[in-house]
């Protein structure tokens, strides 16, 4: 019996070694983060009456280790505003993405080059992000382009959305169900069922049902889904969008949440990962049954 166990362990060790080579090669690429949601993710920090003041705080300065996938699906050095060619119908300013990235790099140099994939569009409700929608498909297209453009791993989705769902009581009531479905679907389509998701609980809203949506966000109970709370942070004069200083705070909070998770197996080419996990699951189940 123990000889059989030993042989199975040797087989598994060989498989892990092969998979580790593939994983190590992938790590030579980028650590990719998808930025999605609506205007507070796209960034309105410093934007007043449709004009951005141009101020970039130290926490959001460009860094040669931080790249951005532009609208033409090409990597370039990231600089604010990150969503300037993605959320094109509105003026973009400071969002949480650069503060997040610089904060992560300050504390984890081993993460390597960070690749940001802006996907957020202002004024969108959760229904517009459902599977098969234009925004959903655009997110998947950009995510795949990020993986194929020099390789790398998708480390997490950074999600800030929900203000538009505070207008209708019906939308607010259905928000939790729709959000869970979105997280589950996008993880499935990215072949990573436990991909970290860092979401932000609303600081504001467009309608009277902010508390209903916030409650839904704070109650999400899925593996590797963390929620940071923006309530009480400084808003722009419009009373809806976070100020530049508040965006820096949110970015750093999201970095804290991500570093607490640090998923051991981020998204990569799914072939080796699937074999590896399937074998391990089979072996553990067999071992428990025998002993």
TrEMBL record:
Residues 30-260 form the Sialate O-acetylesterase domain. GO terms for molecular function: hydrolase activity. It comes from the Eukaryota. It comes from Sesamum angolense. Keywords: Hydrolase, Signal. PANTHER family: ESTERASE, PUTATIVE (DUF303)-RELATED. It holds the Pfam family SASA. This is Carbohydrate esterase. Residues 1-18 form the signal peptide. The lineage of its organism: Eukaryota, Viridiplantae, Streptophyta, Embryophyta, Tracheophyta.
